[in-house]
Amino acid sequence: MRQTTERLRLSQGPLAGQTRARALAVAAAVLFSTGGAAIKTEAFGALQVSSVRSGVAAIALLLFLGGKRHLTGPIVATGAAYAATLTTFVAATKLTTAASAIVLQSTAPLYLLVIGPWLLKEQLHRRDVGHAVAMTAGLLVCFLGQPGASATAPDPAMGNLLGLASSLAWAATLTGLRSVTKTGQRGAALSAVIVGNTFASLAVLPFALPFPAAPALAWAGLLYLGVIQIGLAYVCLTRALDHLPALEVSLLLLMEPVLNPVWTWLIRGEQPGGWVIVGGAFILAASARRAMTRASELH
What we know:
This protein is an all-alpha fold.
């Protein structure tokens, strides 16, 4: 009886919390991955998409928190980094292929290998380095042989530069979210996301006006981006960050660059290129291997 009780206690302890956190991080990655297809809408420009998407997300997350929010220096700084991530990623996705934009943004774990131990004092394991190297190899394969300009990717060169800028901002965002989460202040990470979306929406709004007379389906797509693709995804992500290091979360989020071009191809007909498929398969294999390694460690 005592042994049964002890097993039940352990199953509800930190290890179970980490398992749920990984599932939430993967759920966030899946929701994030749907953004490329929705952002590619022809009805709105990049700044219009960015402004409405972030404005809706800020309202949705504020409602989720019941109107409660925190404003501290670290939260505002994290919000600023996140605002830069949002704006540069939308612009990159509009100018280059969805695959290229998300592949470049997903190089963030490389920066976190340095930032995590330095700023967050989180221990770096050999398996993390090996996994990051494997992910990077897969991402580089994805980036080989990208197609030229097209109707859905009119300026790949500029889009790729913006994608790289987005990756730097995303690494800073993950670091900031993990940092404010470790303070133990409930709702701090979501508050930073709300601040970032508010910054991103208001900063580009003057340049986004006037909005076109778009069909209802196009507006519904923007609402989806704000409420689900950002709002619900960040509820999952910030809860995952309660239990997992920033580097591990960033590695789990690498599911996003695998799925993003798939949705864009299915919905918008944008061809990701053969190399993206090969690199995506490599990323999936590496992620599966690491998941199995973690599972064996827990048992």
